[in-house]
Design goal:
Length: about 120
């Protein structure tokens, strides 16, 4: 069985980082936003979080069901990120950071069961 909470939080953080790495979305948060200068860092961390989410889903569910669960959770969190970016764009920064930290903390025991 795939643990849904670490997968969803990692996927949300990954999609949020990739969304904030785009210049037009960073500028939507304000012209003097520090996110414009950190675009490369956000892009790299978004891809790393996406790779970690893929690793969590494949380790727990196998290549067949794990990838299907990953794509389903990516679809759901992308809808949530689009909603946040549309109605509450500032909340996306805080929720992306919180989900990233929570996802990293929860994925440790999933990847390394001895922890």
């Amino acid at each position: 069985m795939i643990p849904a909470l670490p997968l969803i939080t990692l996927a949300f953080a990954a999609v949020g980082c990739l969304c904030l790495a785009m210049e037009r979305h960073a500028l939507q948060l304000g012209a003097n936003s520090r996110l414009v200068q950190k675009r490369n860092w956000l892009r790299r961390s978004g891809w790393l979080l996406l790779a970690l989410a893929t690793m969590v889903s494949v380790i727990t569910g196998g290549w067949g069901f794990g990838l299907v669960a990953l794509l389903g959770s990516l679809s759901a969190v992308t809808l949530a990120v689009i909603g946040l970016m549309t109605y509450r764009p500032r909340w996306l920064i805080y929720s992306t950071g919180a989900c990233g930290i929570a996802g990293l903390l929860m994925s440790g025991p999933v990847i390394w069961p001895g922890i």
